[in-house]
Amino acid sequence: MVTRNDVAKAAGVSTAVVSYVVNDGPRNVAPATRERVLEAIRDLGYRRDTVARSLRTGRTQSLGLVVPDLSLPYFAEFTKHINSAGERTGRQILLGASDWSVPRERAMVVGLAERRVDGIVLLSADPLQDLTELDGLGVPVVVVDRPVVTTLGTHAAVDHLVGHGHDRIGLLCGPRTHRLSLRRVSAWEEAVRRHGSVPDPDWRLHSTITRRDGRDAARSLLGQAHPPSAVVVGSDVQAVGVLRAAYEAGVRVPHELAVITTEGTELAEFSTPSLSSITQPIDVVAAMAFTQVEDSTAPGVTLVSDDRFDLCGRESCGCIPLIGP
Fold first, then answer.
1. CB under 8 Å, gap of 24 or more: what pairs does 216-221 form?
2. Of the candidates 66, 87, 88, which has an alpha carbon nearest to the alpha carbon of residue 78?
3. Which residue, 202, 197, 200, is CA-closest to 221?
4. In b/e form, how buried is each residue of 166-184, taking b as 16+ CB within 10 angstroms?
5. Which of 14, 61, 148, 168 has an alpha carbon within 20 to 30 A of 285's alpha carbon?
6. Do the beta carbons of residue 282 and residue 78 sit within 8 Å?
7. Does residue 74 have a pLDDT over 80?
8. Entry pTM
9. Which domains are present in the chain?
10. Per residue, what are the HEC states of 97-144?
11. Which of 76, 127, 87 lies closest to 305, judged by CA?
12. Continuous segment of H or E residues that includes residue 278
């Protein structure tokens, strides 16, 4: 194995100078000397011993990220931003997907801590769970939660549909076992009542967060004797399933069924018709979480949230005219 001593000997410098070049500091190295060291590194095939470095510094230059489902656009985009931040700062991102299982999520977080990552970002399958157990893992754990966006975003979606003249507004969200779904149901019920209507339990449907189950749930909704004229959908993939069910049933969107989603990823913009949505600054939230976990010097749990959102009206609610005949 090629060592720094070998590089130093080949370049005619001290091992300290090799260290300054490899680590880009802390002291400056003259350009000509730096080039000799880099040439020796290339010729000898030298690679840094990251294990030895982590033993010296107590830092592994790695971070953990655990999300519920990598197949969903929101979590995929969040992961992309975290990974990009890791590349910019020289950190390796170790990734896990819990498949919406809290026990599996806990096992992944514990496993990452045992691998001595410098910190963990967690998008929990159950953001309302007791997180005190994570305080004892010996690493910083940053938990991302967006309760205000879930609640106020659902209110904003209902308000927007009422503004289009709808008074029969349904809801499709994730499984009943998801605490996030319970938040959304409560917000939907409050918003509907605020506009003088009674939330119809037949218009509140749950499904797994997939296109297929979103379509199947929408089929059930549209097959009712008195279906709603508009629906708020918890995720973009479910909303795409709703659009498919409406197409199959000959129900025109938005003329006979208006649709608005509360997730707002790129999928909403490029669906047919385009989906009106509550949009969230995923890149900003990811940057906040990464900065928090990178800057944390003490173990323990920190909650990170961003309350900003916008409502983007597109074709599926009638804000933008449909393209084509």
1. 216/241, 216/245, 217/172, 217/241, 217/242, 218/172, 218/242, 218/244, 218/245, 218/246, 219/245, 219/248, 219/249, 221/170, 221/172, 221/245
2. 66
3. 202
4. beebbbbbbeeebbbbebb
5. 61
6. yes
7. yes
8. 0.81
9. 4-48 (1.10.260.40), 61-145+282-307 (3.40.50.2300), 148-280+311-317 (3.40.50.2300)
10. ECCCCHHHHHHHHHHHHHCCCCEEEECCCCCCCCCHHHHHHCCEEEEE
11. 127
12. strand 276-279
Query: Per the structure block, which two tokens stand in for 60?
Result: 């592994």
68 DSSP assignment: S
Return the SS3 of 301.
Answer: strand
Output DSSP code: residue 322. Answer: P
- CA distances to 113, 250, 270, 293 from 244, in Å: 43, 10, 14, 40
| Structure confidence by residue, pLDDT tens digits, 16-53 | 888 888 877 778 888 999 999 899 888 888 877 654 55
Residue pLDDT, tens place only, 262-293: 998 999 999 999 999 999 899 999 999 999 99
Q: CA gyration radius for the chain?
A: 25
Region 98-112: mean pLDDT is 92
Which tokens hold the place of 194? 């605020």
Higher pLDDT, 44 or 219: 219
